[in-house]
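Thread: Myotubularin-related protein 12, structure

OP (GT): Posting the sequence first so everyone is looking at the same thing. Length is 716 residues per the record. Can we get the structure tokens written out before standup tomorrow? I want them in the notebook alongside the other entries.
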Amino acid sequence: EIHIKEPIEKEVNPHLLPGELLLCEASTVYKYIQEDGSNRGTYGKLVCTNFKIAFLDDDSASDDNEPQFKNKIVGENDITLQCVDQIYGVYDEKKKLLTGQLRKYPEKLIIYCKDLRVFHFCLRYTKEEEVKRIVSGIVHHSQTPKLLKRLFLFSYASAAPNNTDGRNQTVMFDTLEDWRDELERTKGNVKYKAVTTNEGYRVSEKLPLYFVVPICVSEESILKYEGRGIPIWCWSCHNGAALLKMSAFPKEQDDITSQTQKAFLDGIYKTISKPPYELLKMDDLSSSLPSLQDIQIAYTRFKQLFLIDNSTDFWATDVKWFSLLESTNWLEIIRRVLKKAIEVAECLERQHTNVLLIEESATDLCCVISSLVQVMMDSYSRTKSGFQSLIQKEWVIGGHGFLDRCNHLHKSDKEEAPVFLLLLNCVWQLVQQYPPAFEFTETYLTVLSDSLYVPIFSTFFFNSQHQKDTNMSGESLKTQSAPFRFLTVWDWSVQFDPKAQAFLNNPLYAEKPKLDKSQRKTARFKHQRQLSLPLTQTKSSTKRGFFREETDHLIKNILGKRIGKFINSSDEPPNSFREFYDSWHSKPVDYHGLLLPRIDGPEIKVWAQRYLRWIPEAQLHGGGTIATAAKILDLMEEVQSLQVKMDEEHSQAVSGDVHSVPMLRNSARLSSLFPFALLQRQSIKPALPTSTWKDLEDEDDLVKRDDEFVDLSGDM
């Protein structure tokens, strides 16, 4: 006999966003707490809307004991339809993947999410008709192909037309002025120009409305092959060297076409080549980095390590964890990508050589490498607004196919590849190696990765600027006079209140000191970390700012004379990379200068916060870096409250109670995976008893305790 708690009326009404419609629901659904393999859990209602799948229990109806880090759009028991990875049904204790039409309905439902959560629902006590409706509804709305206009993005935008576009100082790069400002900021306007050739998308629908090319490239050249074969500017280094990208011509073509295209490329190179002033390294990323298919296969294997059904499964994989991790090849791909970014940085920084990244569409691995290089070399890209502007420039406006790569419409698995997640994983390596260099935290990166699957923001739900622009109007121009007002993900107030947003900002960020005029003159000659070794014995410039004009060169162009004469890696000394890498790491770190990630051996780590945050056994209670960060936030609040007191009194510091502001956190009670671990509000048994923690301080006892550790997990 099943007893359900009384306040069922509250559970019936899920919190619906503007434009959100309830499609189907089922009562008396039992949600397991997948902690120790037992059948403990809670009863409630399972609902499916055009935005999410949600489980509603007693806790959902009350606002008591809410976590400090609460997402206002997606609750702890909510799964957006785009976040659903796979759905399994359990028939007589056997798991079966659910897709399309179902002949028989399961007694249990397991939902694996793209943010690595796993939900287990028992439908044994639910009415048969409700089971049919909810299971077929969830499978249909989350797994079958759909049209773009059927995304919740459009329902939300039309139902909430007064949405404000909170840009939060993020440069959107959707105007010509934005590009010109970026050219000026990086001192790239000497050799490059922002063009309007693609206005009305007359060159290509894949290119943005505005972009930057070398000054000598003509409009006719851009138009000839729909932008292919044209070097497009990404960023300029302080020494004048530039990072460029180019979409290559298709490789398999008839001789006449390929000869014509070769002549076209040759013509462009001749027009803008002025050696020996400008050197160029071309890098075909499709041959020097893993393919998108390899990246997808590696990530698919990798994520399986974290989609844990229960505690027993966790400990079963724990014995061979490192070999399983290595066999996925995911960390090796991260290492290779970081190594490639260091190679590019060496060309720009030390060799003063322009780098041209080549890829079929220049919208996948080009985005990863160009973004990483800018994060490593430009301290502005390590601020929150700078990083967001970088994502806008290289990914959103740059034409990365988020819709296809994330498979939001479930149209083609072949196009799916976690390219943007790969970038965030690489940036995380830098953030955890050099925390003071970044204004944002790893929590910011984790939340950003989650936002990939929240379809109320347009940022990650289009393949190109053209696709977004053509879908801005309503169903028909007669009925919808005003275009849709889409939200941007960079307005964090939509998802989090100010207290929660505090976790996105790094309290230990080493801000760049602002010097007055008298200090600037002396500081200019002060030694800074400079690894640029001149190729010839020329007198180095005395200008040592981050962006430095090369006054001894005329306006220089970007490409070499002919394809056959380009510098390739084989021309460089074999130990050039290692020398550059070791030389940099032998000096103190300048958090506002060049940053090179450590990529040797175990330096490439698993992004624990993102991948282990839903696994209780993987948590350190009262430990981890978050305990330190939380304590610092407490101290900052304390200092701010004292400052307020001082300002009010207009006198010396008051000797009153320094704890007048209530503390938000208690570091002694936090898990190492806070703030996400708090979303699981059940009491979690520690993987080790308290007495064992003290013993672990002695390294000699660690090996002796291994058996106790494993035995204990079986008793849980």
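GT: Both are above now. Quick notes for whoever picks this up: Residues 625-649 form the longest helix (25 residues). The radius of gyration is 28 Å.
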